[in-house]
Specification:
heterodimer; A: 142 residues; mainly alpha; 82% helix; flat; B: 463 residues; three-stranded antiparallel β-sheet
Chain lengths: 142, 463
């Protein structure tokens, strides 16, 4: 199942990479106050994830390393969703959130069907994200 | 041929077929309307777990379909929902033709309906979360327009609906573990919390409801309206299924107050915020919040008396939302904005659409002689032990009445339009049919209550 998740992640990245041609925004280079704030927020989220990972261990019986990784990804995804209103970054945020949850859930639920369906949802999110980016940018680029 | 094949697989196949018939709009309309009507009638009149006879051909309709060890079960108690959803699809397909919306609308709406019914019927129930997420993802292409940026409302819709899936899956996992022993109260409360959060995200329950007005404001209002009409009704029925299946949750002390307070907050905030809006599309968004709030308060009654207003509210909500969305889409025409300032004197050009919008709004506010009034009377009579809830619910309704009066003043006042009639025959027919049904339910509540309720109550007790 781990291999399937890895390949799904690659496929999602590949699907979304095709839309980079449609990205009109050029990111600022260097450390801007906005970027600094995001980095600080991310560090805080990861610290909170580290602190509560032992509690998750008590509740669900997953190892603290897995709980930390999952919570750090979930927190990062939520942070991304909170900060951005661009289609591409929102889709990436949702995928990060889902991948974090899947790390936790794969340790809890052994059913291959459930995990496979969640992976299908990941792929569909990436597909629809790519569709939304291309269809809404098509005319602007033409 | 099992019931899930008829009401899940066939609509999904139809969606695939209709996708390739997008260019032939008339044929696509004919197939979609015919199939929806047939499936709706079949749900109304054909018992599940019995034989269906056409001449000498006998087809058994079992309730269960098994795929990879997972069951999809559609029983007789689901037939009301099936009939409601497929008969409303008849309206949506006709309306899509009447307002000339995207050709993708019909195939995608069928796929969405198919996924939502799958979510309602699948067991174990944690798969529901995945099917609802699939429905959300599938409906996105009809919510955007080529060359127009994806708005914040649509992105927030996607975010909030997606956030629900992990919570429901985790709740499902916890519940599957504790079903053998209910001694671990901490796990049960955690499951209840996750379920609550999941449903709050799905339904846009307070405080996760702020995306709804923004969502209504963006891109194709007709498609957004379809999503706002179909999703909450389906998800609330899935929620009801969950609550009924989990005895400890149904009997818990916190369920009724939580539903009642959340519902009342949605009614009050939805109504009051609607009254402050100038953009009519946002007004409809807030009215949708108010109507979902009423459904939650209906569920909180938890008695047979509560089931009655709930089913009538679902019916009247479907009618009102359909009428409001169609009327507003007709009034909007090609413009993106439809504000109080640019509807002055529209009555002369769009007489039936303006009446449809006003009647839909008045009915949503619970005005006598209209569709929502009978269910509101039953609800308020049942809530006499909690007068504060009634006061706040009434405040929401009064606020909707105020904004409706303001819209009315603008429709009939301002500059006098000398334009000719702009409505097509199909638009007039659909609005007229909606108006007649809303008036019949409101004017003859006891007749409708008796005939409809006798049918619903029989189906709900059938196995």
């Amino acid at each position: 199942m781990t291999g399937a998740k890895l390949i799904t992640g690659w496929m999602c990245a590949a699907i979304l990479s095709f839309t980079t041609a449609y990205q009109s925004n050029v990111e600022e280079i260097g450390i801007t106050p906005k970027r600094l704030f995001k980095i600080m927020a991310l560090i805080m989220v990861w610290m909170v994830a580290y602190v509560i990972s032992s509690r998750i261990n008590d509740l669900f019986g997953v190892s603290p390393e897995i709980a930390f990784t999952a919570l750090a990804l979930i927190g990062s995804g939520l942070l991304q969703l909170g900060f951005s209103s661009q289609t591409f970054t929102v889709i990436v945020g949702i995928l990060i959130f889902f991948f974090g949850f899947e790390i936790l859930f794969a340790d809890l639920e052994n059913s291959i069907l459930v995990n496979a369906m969640i992976l299908a949802v990941d792929l569909l999110v990436a597909f629809v994200g790519a569709y939304l980016i291309t269809i809404t940018r098509q005319e602007a680029n033409e | 041929m099992s019931a899930p094949v008829i009401w899940i697989v066939i609509p999904f196949i139809a969606a695939l077929v209709l996708w390739f018939l997008q260019d032939k709009r008339r044929l696509s309309l004919l197939i979609s309307v015919g199939l929806s009507f047939l499936l709706g009638l079949l749900a109304l009149f054909q018992n599940i777990n019995s034989a269906f006879r056409i001449g000498s051909v006998v087809i058994n309709i079992p309730s269960t379909m098994t795929i990879l060890g997972r069951n999809f079960i559609l029983g007789n108690d689901d037939r009301i929902f099936l009939a409601f959803i497929f008969l409303s699809m008849v309206f949506w397909c006709f309306s899509a033709q009447a307002v000339g919306t995207s050709s993708k609308f019909i195939p995608i709406s069928f796929a969405v309906v198919s996924f939502l019914i799958a979510a309602l019927s699948v067991e174990p129930f944690l798969y529901s979360a995945i099917f609802v997420e699939l429905a959300v993802i599938v409906c996105l292409p009809i919510l955007v327009k080529r060359g127009k940026p994806v708005g914040k409302g649509i992105l927030r819709f996607l975010i909030f609906q997606s956030l629900a899936m992990p919570f429901i899956l985790l709740a499902g996992w916890i519940l599957s573990g504790v079903q053998t022993s209910f001694s671990d109260l901490r796990q049960l409360y955690l499951a209840a919390l996750f379920l609550g959060l999941g449903f709050a995200f799905w339904l846009g329950i307070f405080p996760f409801h702020f995306w709804i007005p923004e969502f209504c404001e963006e891109n194709d209002f007709f498609a957004n309206g379809f999503v706002l009409s179909i999703f909450p009704a389906s998800i609330i029925l899935i929620m009801l299924d969950f609550i009924n299946g989990l005895t400890w949750l149904r009997d818990s002390a916190f369920l009724v107050p939580v539903l009642r307070v959340c519902g009342t907050l949605m009614i009050a905030t939805g109504g009051i915020w609607a009254a402050m809006q100038k953009n009519l599309r946002r007004v409809i968004g807030y009215v949708a919040i108010l109507q979902t709030g009423f459904l939650l308060v209906d569920i909180s009654l938890q008695t047979e008396l509560g089931t009655k207003p709930f089913y009538f509210s679902i019916l009247s909500r479907g009618l009102e939302m359909g009428l409001l969305i169609l009327a507003l889409k007709i009034l909007q025409g090609e413009d993106q904005e439809i504000n109080l300032s640019n509807i002055d004197g529209k009555f002369k050009e769009y007489p039936l659409a303006t009446i449809g919008l006003l009647v839909g709004m008045f009915s949503s506010a619970g005005l006598p002689l209209l569709a929502s009034f009978p269910s509101r009377v039953i609800l308020f009579t049942s809530l006499t032990d909690t007068p504060n809830i009634i006061y706040w619910n009434l405040a929401g309704c009064i606020a909707v009445l105020l904004i409706t009066c303001s819209i009315l003043r603008h429709f009939f006042g301002g500059r006098i339009s000398h334009g000719s009639l702009q409505e097509t025959r199909l638009q007039e027919l659909l609005i007229g049919a909606g108006l007649i049904i809303i008036l019949i339910i409101g004017v003859f509540p006891s007749v409708i209550n008796q005939t409809l309720w006798s049918k619903i109550s029989v189906l709900l007790t059938m196995k």
